Amino acid sequence: xxxxxxxxxxxxxxxxxxxxxxxxxxxxxxxxxxxxxxxxxxxxxxxxxxxxxxxxxxxxxxxxxxxxxxxxxxxxxxxxxxxxxxxxxxxxxxxxxxxxxxxxxxxxxxxxxxxxxxxxxxxxxxxxxxxxxxxxxxxxxxxxxxxxxxxxxxxxxxxxxxxxxxxxxxxxxxxxxxxxxxxxxxxxxxxxxxxxxxxxxxxxxxxxxxxxxxxxxxxxxxxxxxxxxxxxxxxxxxxxxxxxxxxxxxxxxxxxxxxxxxxxxxxxxxxxxxxxxxxxxxxxxxxxxxxxxxxxxxxxxxxxxxxxxxxxxxxxxxxxxxxxxxxxxxxxxxxxxxxxxxxxxxxxxxxxxxxxxxxxxxxxxxxxxxxxxxxxxxxxxxxxxxxxxxxxxxx
Length: 395
Fold this sequence. Notes:
It contains 13 helices and 14 strands. It has helices at about 25-30, 75-85, 105-115, 150-160, 195-210, 220-225, 240-250, 260-265, 270-275, 305-315, 350-360, 370-375, 380-385, and strands at about 10-20, 50-55, 60-65, 95-100, 120-125, 140, 180-185, 210-215, 235, 255, 285-290, 320-325, 335-340, 365-370. It has a six-stranded mixed β-sheet with strand order 2-3-1-4-5-6, sandwiched between helices. Strands 8-7-9-10 form a four-stranded parallel β-sheet, sandwiched between helices.
């Protein structure tokens, strides 16, 4: 996968924060060497978070987020500050831009406390050093106008954002030369002319391992398995067709789903397995939140808004209330819910997925995902987790 095609969810997210007129947008433009944000002497020019995907050397593919001033005022200002705080849930590195001619204020200190509480590595950039003789020991003096110490700032951001990525989708589950069958239904919900991101990532992971990836629709799966001269080491399916695939794939062939693999990849599989038990405790009037990280066009038999709600009501035989959330929207109060069912999170970076998981945990609300939910309702959760023996005991 080239740098230009690296998914947003796989990029380091860098957020620029600070007060109005501290020069955030100017520093963003200097760091990126692009006119990403509008610059003006008028306070509050940046009214909403501005996001840009790009390649930033020496880091590589990143997402740059320029935020509104944290000291914004009035009713609209409060909403802008609220959006700025929401950005903190998905940034991997924070850059605090302080007006070096003034120094830190209470708003800057509040931001620093937020960085620390959310365990976000950060650097302080004291802007406008060309206009003052003041020096600061806890940050870097920069000038966006004169391009002073901008490279030093970029190098510091790169060090803070450097992570050892050891996560894999499924390459640790197969060996070189193994045959893996990927079941990919092509229906009204399938994007025309392309595969969804988890399918792309799984295929690449298998190819990197030297395993063979055989792709087939659910309608041809049975005939394909019969025609193979070699028994597959693993079958990975779209969770939506578990009800078909479970009866076709013999019990001696390992079976799991893209969604279950994504839950592990994003770091919340164990939480999701534990959370599935809450399905059978639902009662009349209980609220269930179904959350997705993307904002795709809804089809007539959409998985999140139609299929899972239907299957839940069939399973529980209870009059439960279903609410949905999509994209960056996620409730600020989870107390009304008895269960949260999340998508695989392929369009969210790990930081935001972990924020949502921990928020649910702190709110004492069970948290699971699509694949685990469907496998549980189909009575095959233990089978689909056989590829992870250490998790079977949680069922």
